[in-house]
Design brief:
The complex is a heterodimer of chains A (185) and B (98).
Chain A: H1 4-13, E1 16-19, E2 23-30, H2 35-46, E3 56-59, E4 62-66, E5 71-77, H3 84-91, E6 96-100, E7 105-111, H4 115-119, E8 137-142, E9 145-151, E10 157-163, H5 167-179
Antiparallel strand pairs in A: 1-7, 2-5, 2-6, 3-4, 4-5, 7-10, 8-9, 9-10
Helix pairs in contact in A: 1-5
Chain B: E1 2-5, E2 9-12, E3 17-21, H1 34-43, E4 51-57, E5 65-71, E6 77-82, H2 83-97
Antiparallel strand pairs in B: 1-2, 3-4, 4-5, 5-6
The chains are: A alpha+beta (185), B alpha+beta (98).
The complex binds zinc ion.
Zinc ion is lined by residues 5, 7-8, 58, 61-62, 64 of chain B.
Chain lengths: 185, 98
Amino acid sequence: MSDPQNEAALKRNGLTISKREDVAVTHVALRRGMQAELEKRASAALGVSLPATARVAEASGKLVVWAGPEQWLIIEPRSTGKDPSVDLAEALKGAASIIDVSDSRVIFRVEGQKATEVLAPSMAIDFHDQVFKRGDVAITHASHLGVMVWRLPDGSGYEFACARTYAVAFSEWLADACGKLTRPA
Amino acid sequence: MRIRCPHCGERALDEFTYLGDASVTRPDPTSPDAAGEFYAYAYERRNIAGPTQELWYHQAGCHSWLVVTRDTRTHEISDVKLAEDVASKRIKSTAGAA
Ligand SMILES: [Zn+2]
């Protein structure tokens, strides 16, 4: 993102890329045979049902992201000195396995009207409005890096989750992809 | 070739890894001809011109194992099921037969 050529291109495209360092990310995985129990307790703890398909669900500042069959990521603002995975582990005890993955995943956000236009030719999934709708999630890869991507429910752009190990490579790819529309020849 | 994953929808081939024949079942190791049956299970394959059942892994996606019905002559995919559903159905049918 420090590449001045990319900075200028992002500006021309009206796009912003931000790294969300203010959030806690918790991984939730269903324990075998506990589906009904988890659904009940997760709804009570989160205020929203765990999405059964590739969707995100919003609940009072939290984002619940489908992360593959029977697993989810819970993304929420990190309040001072509190680890949300501890509360969640208590609430879902026995029904799910809970891991704090805040240090292993990085969340990037791309906002702007042209977000779909620049991502569509950059990745192999179908970004058409009627195919990848607001709140839809895809687990896929971008430039050989494993990523999860979801369209923000308010339609303002997209968020990506990638392994922290690859965050630099991924963010450079993202800036490159977002700058390509108006890149000088 | 694109594969429609039951969890993820249609995705490009580069997200998947091919394992092999999904129609073979692991023999009973206590059967009298276990060695012969395991040899056939591991090595003996038919070279089918037509619809085959294959195991594919959605490696760059949801990490599900899939049973894909593909025509070797046209690459046309007529069916994709989750391998765990196929396996549990198979277990149920053998349990019912016994
Ligand atoms: Zn999949």
